[in-house]
């Protein structure tokens, strides 16, 4: 089962992975918090603020730790699909899909055990997200810094 923490960090990391957090992405995170029972909790605002502090302090290692946590979660197919849905929706929230976002998504996908067939069945119009890159470097280039997000 995918946890609220992992979904929230998925949304946050997909917002931040291109070095910019767009207002449309913040609006989508607010929508998740308001409408998805998984995101309900005592202090989602505080958790998001912790993510901001952590990524500002740790940079690429924060994203790498997140990817390790995805792998360690050993998600079943339904949980993996929920995580992927959150990631894709967040990447597409600002109607501007950057290569860095798709590349980060592919890193997430590599940590999941779900089959390509199930992904193509669930997301038939998202081929670009699932096709392998010719070159997919393991290192993450990270130089951005973010301000507090108000939900």
Distance between the termini: 25 Å
What proportion of the residues form beta strands (DSSP E)? under 5%
Q: What's the Cα radius of gyration?
A: 14 Å
DSSP helical segment count: 8
Tertiary shape: globular
Mean pLDDT: 87
Helix content: 55-70%
Number of strands: 0
Q: Spell the H/E element sequence.
A: HHHHHHHH
- Based on secondary structure, the structural category is mainly alpha
Low-confidence stretches: none
Q: What characterizes the major β-sheet?
A: none
Write a concise synopsis of the structure shown.
With 151 residues, the protein is mainly alpha-helical. The chain is 62% helix and 0% strand. The protein has helices spanning 4-16, 23-35, 44-58, 60-73, 77-92, 99-110, 116-122, 127-130.
Structural notes for this entry:
The protein has helices at 4-16, 23-35, 44-58, 60-73, 77-92, 99-110, 116-122, 127-130. It is mainly α and 151 residues long. The protein is globular and about 40 Å long. The two termini are 25 Å apart. The model has no long low-confidence stretch (mean pLDDT 87).
């Amino acid at each position: 089962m995918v946890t609220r923490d992992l979904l929230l960090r998925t949304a946050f990391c997909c917002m931040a992975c291109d070095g910019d957090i767009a207002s449309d992405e913040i609006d989508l995170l607010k929508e998740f918090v308001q409408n998805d029972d998984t995101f309900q909790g005592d202090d989602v605002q505080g958790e998001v603020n912790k993510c901001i502090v952590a990524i500002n302090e740790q940079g690429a290692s924060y994203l790498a730790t997140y990817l390790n946590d995805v792998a360690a979660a050993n998600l079943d197919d339904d949980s993996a699909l929920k995580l992927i849905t959150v990631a894709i929706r967040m990447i597409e929230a600002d109607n501007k899909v950057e290569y860095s976002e798709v590349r980060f998504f592919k890193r997430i996908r590599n940590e999941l055990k779900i089959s390509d067939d199930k992904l193509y069945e669930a997301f038939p119009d998202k081929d670009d997200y699932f096709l392998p890159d010719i070159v997919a470097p393991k290192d993450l280039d990270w130089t951005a810094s973010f301000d507090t997000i108000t939900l």
